[in-house]
Write a structure and sequence with these properties.
mainly alpha
Length: 201
């Protein structure tokens, strides 16, 4: 009984560790993307390169945009973020949520993409991501701990294979946790009023 409790405790520690790492990485990324670059100079450079058509200097524009987001934006999205007052400050967050939100061009704001506009669908997606993280993470942590504790001495090669499988499952669980966090808080960008002040640049 005590052994089982100790084993479960180790699994919980691994899952909490993954959540902590993902949270720290997310905060570091936010700080890095919003503070460590000369946003004003880069924004002004983007305006000069974009002009009235982003396709004119698209390759140079994409290089600069990669400093703010890894998301692949359309020319229309690029032009909107550059020329809509107050929009550019939200580019990094939009890039992280791009699978779930889209630009509402008529109202100069953001809206849920497709069926995510339905609250029930959004809550189901959040629950699904969290459930997959819990199940896959638990299986991965269990496999890894079991391999290291029980298989390594007698069957090193098999233990290595199980450990690798466990690590891959933990990586997969971390991906779903990141997707879950990308939707939190749910209303961060939706219907947000853009502010076109100097800090946006």
């Amino acid at each position: 009984m005590e052994a089982s409790v100790a084993f479960i405790g180790k699994v919980v520690v691994v899952l909490v560790g993954i959540a902590s790492i993902i949270g720290v990485v997310s905060r570091v990324y936010l700080s890095h993307s919003s503070q460590n670059y000369k946003r004003v100079e880069l924004y002004q450079q983007l305006q000069k390169l974009c002009g009235t058509d982003a396709n004119t200097n698209l390759s140079e524009i994409l290089v600069i945009l990669r400093l703010f987001t890894p998301a692949h934006l359309t020319n229309k999205e690029i032009e909107w973020f550059i020329w809509t007052p107050g929009a550019f400050r939200y580019l990094p967050e939009y890039g992280r949520k791009i699978d779930f939100i889209e630009i509402d061009y008529e109202n100069a704001s953001f809206q849920w993409r497709g069926s995510f506009s339905q609250r029930r669908k959004l809550l189901r997606t959040l629950a699904w991501f969290l459930a997959i993280y819990g199940v896959v993470g638990t299986v991965g942590a269990t496999a890894l701990i079991y391999a290291l504790q029980n298989l390594a001495p007698a069957k090193p090669l098999f233990a290595m294979a199980v450990s690798v499988a466990g690590l891959l499952l933990l990586m997969l669980s971390a991906y779903f946790l990141r997707e879950f966090l990308n939707l939190m808080p749910p209303q961060y960008l939706i219907e947000r009023k853009l502010r076109g002040d100097a800090a946006d640049k």
